[in-house]
Amino acid sequence: MKKKSLIIKSFPNQNILKIPNNFLRASYKCSATTQRMYFYSIFKYLTSHENQNVVSFSFSDFFTDLKLSDGQKTRNLIKESANEILDMKIVLEDNEKQYEVTNVFQSAKCKFTETTFSFKFTDDMKVFLDELKEIGFTLFEINDLGKLKSFYALRYYLVALSYKGFKGKKGNIKNSWFFEYTVEELRKLFDIQENEYPQMGPFKNIVIELPLKELNEKNLGIQIVCTPIKKSRKIVGFHFDCIDATKINQLDETKYLYVEDNQVKGGTEEISKQDTMKEAVQIISKNPLRYAQILEEEKNNPNIFGFSPEIQALIRLKEELLAKEREAVLENA
Fold first, then answer.
1. Phi-psi region of 293 (alpha: psi -120 to 50; beta: other; left: phi over 0)
2. Triad 4, 106, 147: Cα angle to 5°
């Protein structure tokens, strides 16, 4: 594969990693813990001033930066990952649909007595890290990798981000974008063998629905809605609509999220910031496409009460969902 010189930079002070999109769309399969260690080792390599294949970091840094809890269960998963990560391979694709397969690590050591990790990249992997063919870049916060538990949820999150450059373009509304994969392409992307989930029901449930449910319920600033693509009655692929939903914890907003239908004394009900964030994410996940549409309207029409467009969009979406619930109750009565 012909390469052109390209330095990949990261942002150590903000724990933000800048990765080429084709790297995020590479085909590979591993556990969620191994995936975190894989990207974190890349993060440490790119923020290091040394030009060597080896990266080392402490358990404490790993747990702190990814906001993971240190415990026996986590350490057992790390022990398993230390063996799995040595067998890890990725398949990279460039703009001309050429492919290159490479082993990621030459050696991996988890020293529990010294509570440190030490990874040595293969020579080929080091070349990929230093010089990659550019097809766009994606920025993401390292600690977001610690918020998702499943391999598939992590992959969807990173793949969706890699297509974010199409947000608001090619017919998409301002805060949305999409990507599509055939069933065969998804199997290749996630390295799923033909004898795994041969029936569409389990495949759809385990590979798509459950991971997206997990992703949409987290406060990661992105929501994904999946629609099957059918040929006659057969599902041949999937269309993924992505919505840029501002992280609720980044909103400098009042505790008063919404006005209750049943007024309480004092006018509005005060709820904690944590409950506000949790409920806001739940509201958006119920209909993220509609949230994106309302948000666009609110950005163009500031409300008189001074709420941000994000909060006002949440208020309106909640009211619409409640109205639909009441209609459904009346229809079934």
1. alpha
2. 80
| Residues contacting 59, CB < 8 A, separation 6+ | 70, 115, 116, 117
Q: Give CA separation, 198 vs 187, 194, 215, 238, in Å.
A: 11, 6, 24, 16
Listing DSSP states for 300-324 in one string gives HS--TT---HHHHHHHHHHHHHHHH
Report which DSSP code applies to 135.
S
Cα–Cα–Cα angle for 29, 34, 36, rounded to 5 degrees: 110
Q: H helices of 90-150, where?
A: 123-130
Question: Per the structure block, which two tokens stand in for 260?
Answer: 């209750």
Question: Residues near 77 by Cβ (< 8 Å), separated by ≥ 6?
Answer: 31, 33
Total number of residues shown for the chain: 333
**In angstroms, what CA-CA distances link 192 with 63, 70, 172, 188?**
29, 31, 30, 6
Burial classification of residue 126, based on how many CB atoms lie within 10 Å of its CB (0-12 exposed, 13-18 middle, 19 or more buried): middle
- 3-state DSSP call for residue 206? helix
Q: Give per-residue pLDDT as tens, 6-55.
A: 333 333 445 677 777 777 888 888 888 888 888 888 888 877 766 678 88
- Alpha-carbon distances of 31 from 84, 173, 270, rounded to whole Å: 8, 35, 41
Q: Tell me the β-bridge partners of 240.
A: 179, 226
Distance CA(171)–CA(185), nearest Å, equals 24
Tell me how many degrees the CA angle 181-29-72 measures, rounded to the nearest 5.
135
Q: Alpha-carbon distance 157 to 144, whole Å?
A: 9
Q: What is the mean pLDDT of the chain?
A: 76
Tokens of 264: 């309480």
